[in-house]
Amino acid sequence: MVGTLLSVALGGAIGASARYLVNVGVMRFVGPGFPYGTIIANVVGSFLMGLIVVVLAHRGNQALAPFLMTGLLGGFTTFSAFSLDTLTLFERGEVGLAGLYVGASVTLSLAAIAVGVLVTRAVMAP
């Protein structure tokens, strides 16, 4: 149990650090305004979740799941940042943009996990 907890903690630290770097990099590239960094992290993280869930299931090895799925991707993607970004847009009076952000985040993240699963299943098919 302690080993698993440490694995989740390590993955979370790496994932949160990666999310921070994505947000900083995107902010430097496109500037402030729309929360592109968070949406990119959530979509990429969803795609990777789809890929990892298939790989781990295919190999019958769930030992890495706590580190990769709960820790790394849990730290990389975040509902709290999504919620804050949405509220910030709403409080700025950008209600339409907030709605667009919510719709795009949910739609693109769901599409990304589906693509991750489908692509990985196709690649790993016998």
Number of domains: 1
- Identify the overall geometry: globular
- Rounded average pLDDT: 92
In sequence order, what are the helices and strands, one letter per element? HHHHH
Give the % helix. over 70%
Strand residue content: under 5%
Tell me about the largest β-sheet: none
Radius of gyration: 16 Å
Give the tally of β-strands.
0
**N- to C-terminal distance:** 35 Å
> How many distinct helices?
5
Parts with pLDDT < 50 across at least 5 consecutive residues: none
| Structural class assignment | mainly alpha
Describe the protein:
The chain has helices spanning 2-30, 36-59, 65-76, 79-91, 95-124. It is mostly helical. It has 5 helices and no strands. The longest helix is centred in the last third of the chain and has 30 residues, at 95-124. The protein is globular and about 50 Å long. The chain has one domain. The N and C termini lie far apart (35 Å). Helix 1 (2-30) packs antiparallel against helix 2, helix 1 (2-30) packs parallel to helix 3 (65-76) and helix 4 (79-91) packs antiparallel against helix 5 (95-124).
